[in-house]
Structure formats: C-alpha cells, structure tokens
C-alpha cells in the first residue's frame, strides 16, 4: 500500500563509500590513529539530537520512501547487521530515498539511508548488506564527530559553526557545501587524508560485521569491482563515483581481506529479490511495458528460488495499472504458496481494495494478525482496509495503537487524520496533521494546529489536557531544534 532526484552527496562528508589507502592484511583490525573517540567534540546525547533534527529536515525535503513493506525489509536487514557490529552506542534507523543514483550515507544518531538505486545495481542481499555494514561502521566509529574534531583542531572555527554547516548541507546541499568549504579553508588535503582513513576503517569493520552476521564477505569486493568495471570508461558517472572513485587498491584490499574469512555458501534471499522487484515496479521510474518485459526476461533465466519475486514484480505492474484480472491470479497463487509473506499480503490487500472487496482484505489480515498481532505492515494495512469499509471508529482504535508504537511513520498519521475527518472529529484531525508537521520540523504550524484542537475541546477535559501537554512538548523540541542551528 501507499505507493509513492536529487543527490544528497553533500551529506556524505566522511560518511560515504570512498577511497581507502594501501592494502593491509585482510583479517587484521590494526588501524591507523585517526583521532579520539570524539568525546571532546560531541556527546552521544548531542549526536542523537543532531540526528533527530537532520531526519526531520530530510522528511521535509527528500523523496523518502515510506512504503511499509520496504521499510520493514530494510530495517530488518540493517538490524541483523547491527546485532553483529562492534561498539554500538546508539539506536539505529534505516530508511530509503527514491533516487536512481548509487549512494548510501550515515549521519549522527545512527541514521542510515540508502538510495533505491542500490537495489538496481546490487545483485544479492549480501551485496546490499556490504554497503549497509560499511555505513554502520561509520556510525559505530563516530566518524562524523571525529571529522568535526579534526576540523576544529585545524581551524579556529567553533563546533557550533561546523555543526551548523553540516546541518545546512542536509537542508540545502549546495549552500551547505559552500559553508563547509568556508569553515575548512586551507585544510583540504588534510581533510581528504582524514576521510580516507575513515573509509579504510569502515571497510574493515564492515567486512567483520558481514561475516558475523552470516553474509558472503566476498560480496563487498565483488560489488566494488563490478561498479568500477561498469563505469570505467563512462563519461557520465554516478554522483558517488564522481566524488568517491573506486581505485583498484580499494578493491584489492577488500578482496584480500575477504579471502581471510571462512567461505560461506549463502542461499539467495527471496525477500531481497521481492524488495528489488517492488522497487523496479514502483520506484525506478520505468514505464510499465518496459518493466513487464524486464520481469519476463529475468524470470526466463532465473533460478526457481527467485522466480516468485519476478512474478510478484509483474503482478505489481498490473495492479498499479488497474489490470486487476492479470494481477489477481498471480498474487493469489503466490499467497497460497506462502501465506505469511508480508510482501504478498500487502499487495493482495491492495488488490482486494481495488476490487471493492475490503471485507476479503480484512479477513485475510485478521488471520495474519493472529500470528503477528503487532506487525506494522499488517496493522497499517488492516487499518486502511477498515477505513475503506467505513468502519471508522475501529480503524481509529487500530491507528491509535499503531501511531503509539510507530510514531515516526507518517502513513499512520495520514490515515488517522482521514478516519477522523470521516467521523467529523476536527480536533483529532488537527492533532494528527500536527504530528505530520512535527516529523518534518514544521514546529510552529504543528503548535498552531494543537492550539486550535485545544480550543475546540471541552474546557477542562482530558482531551484538552492532552493537547496542551503536547503543545508544551513541541515547544521544547522546537527550541532545542532551533538552538542546533
């Protein structure tokens, strides 16, 4: 449900895939001295505050993919890696940006973004995991904070000015890069060398994490090598390779290191290929005829274990083009073969709603929820199906629980707003819309909406007390946000 490019390379100062130095022994984590643990620059609490602020700005400005199924997949994969990473000091949040350019980046507070274009170039889950593992290492080793510490050591600029430049780089990349250049004038070569050291460390910790998490460690050099070969003679390079080339020494270093880990036979991940098919069908900007042709050609040469993913992708194209008679038999057969697969459940729910059969969607989702009562994909689809069957009060009850547990998902707040409009409950509609605005750093408008809701509520009621308490919270968050700038 909920179908939905600008490069964010400027954000990746010390946190994107870049150039390592000469190879070292592959299984050693003897690394160069690249600074302290950054405790003299930013505390973990401060990093969390910056990360939250950056994320709110990105929600407002970047084409973030809010697809519940893809979000669950990326989050599950990311946390499988985090569980096997060293030096984890912050919670992690993984999300996707709709952009065909190959890129990934990490920033304060454990936020890791990947471009949808990575799915178009990575050929296996291990290859995608290798990029995520690299970015996780940037966070666990606190490279962004260390970079700020190094810049402060080399120039008289204050920490506040450096942090403000980085914040601006996310909000307006071109202006942000100009500000960063101004604060680090005269230190370009030192910054390049420092970034290379960070990348060397991230590659090595990333491979160690891949191995412990059960992935194919050779996926990292294989992915790097294929990208280098693909764009070796290209005149129009993807943004990542323009600013962070892949020289042979980096590929050689990761290949040698991977060879020192035990060889693992990793079976193909159906969920990865389902996610990839969903992106090709809905987020790659490919015309429907071309997408159908691509899925058919891929299926003809695919192994049996990933053919269902290609059939699924073809069904999504049919569904999105209202060719329901073609989508239905494919989705129903896939669901019959794997009734707990949430990719299939989500899309079959969309099919039933498109066929004006919300009761079938509700029955299917209620059955699935018996096994996983709090699963966000099932809950959001269930609430949406109840809404479409005009069971507004029941939908609101589900959404209240959903937004309590998944407060950063705008989908839940949008549906809650819609359901309350249907019931004529203006004050709760305003409250839901205020939460959406707050997630995008629209503090003043959010406070205004809650103030209007408070004025509508009965004087002295619990509802009014709740709205007023939330106003106080938002004012504190707004002031903290503004102080970071």
Automatic annotation (TrEMBL):
A biological-process GO annotation:
proteolysis involved in protein catabolic process
Q: What is its main location?
A: periplasm
Q: From the UniProt record, which GO molecular function terms apply? A: metalloendopeptidase activity; zinc ion binding
Provide the cofactor list for this protein.
Zn(2+)
Question: InterPro entries under this entry?
Answer: Mito/Outer_Membr_Metalloprot, Peptidase_M48, Protease_BepA, TPR-like_helical_dom_sf
Chain ranges of the Peptidase M48 domain: 72-257
Keyword terms: Hydrolase, Metal-binding, Metalloprotease, Periplasm, Protease, Signal, Zinc
Q: Which protein family is named in the record?
A: Belongs to the peptidase M48 family. BepA subfamily.
Q: What is this protein called?
A: Putative beta-barrel assembly-enhancing protease
Organism name: Vibrio marinisediminis
The upper taxonomy is: Bacteria, Pseudomonadati, Pseudomonadota, Gammaproteobacteria, Vibrionales
